[in-house]
Task: structure prediction
Amino acid sequence: MSNRIPERINAKLFARTERGLNGQYAVQSFGRLNDIPQSAGEVVAFEVEFSFAPNGHIQVKGHVSGTLQLMCQRCMQPFDYSVKTEFLLAVIESEHLAESLPEQYEPYVVGDSEELQVQDLIEDELILALPIIPKHEHDCIAKFREKPPVEEPEERKNPFAVLETLKQK
Ligand SMILES: [Zn+2]
Result:
């Protein structure tokens, strides 16, 4: 399905003709997201529109959405995380041009060729939209509190409990 999405495009040409692109990528096809293998079967949908901003730079307006399986860093169980992010980018040739952009724009540096890697851009936006420390919204470890703390580090054990076991010997 993703075959019809061009791998790279000329951003200026797209802006001049006010072209857009939309499609889907399999989560497993994103090279930098391979630390979330639970999402292997999922897809991420996107849409981008190119045009020229009033001050002359190329702008890309778009959104990315999908559901990924992230690992909860509190209970270490996978959970569904819905991503929905919108963005407004200014395609610029070098980093130093970023300073002159109106603040609503997120700079996107492409280099002299003005060639833009479509999936790379989508992956950037997706990564920005993911939580740094993924966690369930609810108090997911509540159900584990009743159980004995199996992997409790040594120094966190109650010293009186340790004494108790020594006495019994
Ligand atoms: Zn959790």
Q: What stands out?
A: The CA atoms of residues 67 and 97 lie 34 Å apart. Helices lie at 11-16, 118-129, 159-168. The first helix runs from residue 11 to 16.
